[in-house]
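User: Can you predict the 3D structure for this chain?
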Amino acid sequence: MNYIELVTHPLDYQQKAPIGFLWSVKTCIYLLGTNEMVLRLFPMLCGIVSIVLFIPVAKYFLRPLAAVTAVAILAMAPPLVFHSVEIKQYSTELLATVLILYIYIRYQHRLTWGSLLTWGLSGAVILWFSYSSIFILAGIATGISCKNLYRRDWKLFFRQLVPFLLWVAGFALNYLLFTHKHAESKWAAEWFDFYHYFMPLPPVNMEELRWYPAALYHLIAYPLGLSWKLYTGNSVLLKAILNTPWLPLIGLFYGIWLFIQEKKYALILLFPFLFMCLASGLKLYPLNERFWVFICPLLLLFIVKGIDQIGSFFKSERMKLLLFILLIAAPVYSAVQTLAYPDEFIIHKRSFQKQALAYINSQFKPGDLVYVYWNDLPGYRFYKHTYPYNFTALEGGDYRKISTSYPDYLNHLQKDFKSFEGKKRIWVIYNHLILTDIGDEIDQPAWYYLKNVNPTDRLMSHLSTLGKQENVYTSFDVKVSLITLKP
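Assistant: Here is the predicted structure, written as C-alpha cells:
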C-alpha cells in the first residue's frame, strides 16, 4: 500500500493504527527496503526516545534516586522492551505519553503566544501518531483548567485555552479525515467484551467486582513487569501471599495519595486515568496488557514516588536503597533470564511462524508439497515476500462458512487435497493456538469448535489416514507435520 492507500483503504485483517505511525513505517520501508527489521525500526526508535525523554520527566516529578529507578524500570520491563521491537503502535503510544509530559514541563509556565502555539501544535501532531494520547492531553487540559477556575485566574484560564483548543482541532481533523473510517468495529467490540477487556462500570455482580483486583494484578505484571512468581503450588493462600506484588501495589496507592496531598500535579496525573476508565466503561477502549502500555509512565511516577516516601521513614539510606532494589529486581531478573533463554521471552505474545517456515525450507525436497492451513496464512503471506523459500506453498481454503457439519467441511477440503496427488511428502503447517479468523463469531460454527477439542487435531487425524504422519516441529503457536503419502 502506498501513502494514499494507507489513508483511503482499510488495513488487512481489520488492523488499525494511527496514520502518523503508518506513514512513518512506510517511510522506513521506502528508504531501507521491505524486510522484517525495517518494519521494527520505527517502534524501536520510539522505545529508545521514550527512555531518553523520560529522564527529564522523572527528574521533574521525583527525587534523584527515585527518578533513576523509574527510568530503569521503563528501560528494562520485559513487556515494554517487547513492544519496542514489535511492528505495532504501542511503543509509539508510550513515546506519545512521555513526550506530552515533557512538553508540559517545558511550556506550562510559558504564556507568550509563540509558546502557547508551539505547545498546542505539538499536542495536535502527537494525536496523529497515538490514539490513546487523547486521554493524556484531555487529562492535562482538564486538570490545568480546573486549577485555573478554582483560583479564578480568568486571564490564565483563557490564555491556556489556546493550546487546548488546538488539541481539540487536531483531534477533530484527524478523526474526520482518517480515524472515523475505521473507528467502528462491531466484531472487535464484541470480542473485547466477551473476553472481559472492558471495565465493568458500574459493576453489578461479584464477577464484575473481581475484575478490578484482577486487572490491577495483571497490570503490575504486564506491562510494568514488576511481579514475581515465587510460588507455583496449588495453595490459594500461599499464591495470594507470595505471588501478589505487594511492594509495587503499596507504592502505587501511596504514591497516588502523596500526589493528591501535594495537590500541585494531582489533577493532571489523575484525570487521564479517569478518562481512560470512562472510555473503557463505555466499551470504547479495552484494558488489558498492550492497551495499558501508554499509561505506564504515569503509573511509574506513582509507584516510585510511593516507594521513595516509604523509604524516607527509615533512618538508614541503605533501607531506602534496598526498597528500590527490591522494586527493580523483577525486571532485572527477567532481563537476565531473557539473555539465558531468549526463546522464552514474552512467549505468549510471540509467533514462531518464521522459524517453522525456515525449518521446512531446510528440509524441503523435490516432490514435496507445503500445505498451509487457513489459520496460518497471514504469517506465510508476509514471509514469502521477505525470504527466498525453495517452495511455493498451497494456501488452504477456509470452508467453514459454506459447510454444515464437519464431514461436509472435509468434503470441501478435498478441493485442497486434490493437489496432494502425485506428491511424495506433504508438509502441513498450521496454528494450534489461534483457531479463529479476524471477524469470526466467537466459537462459531459450533460443529467446528467442540468443547475441549482442538479443531486442528481433528484435521491432522483425518490427514493421518493419507500416510505416515510425523510431528516434526512444535512451537508455542505453530506446528508442522510431515505426511509421507502412501504409494
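The chain has a mean pLDDT of 93. Residues 94 and 294 are 4 Å apart (CA to CA).
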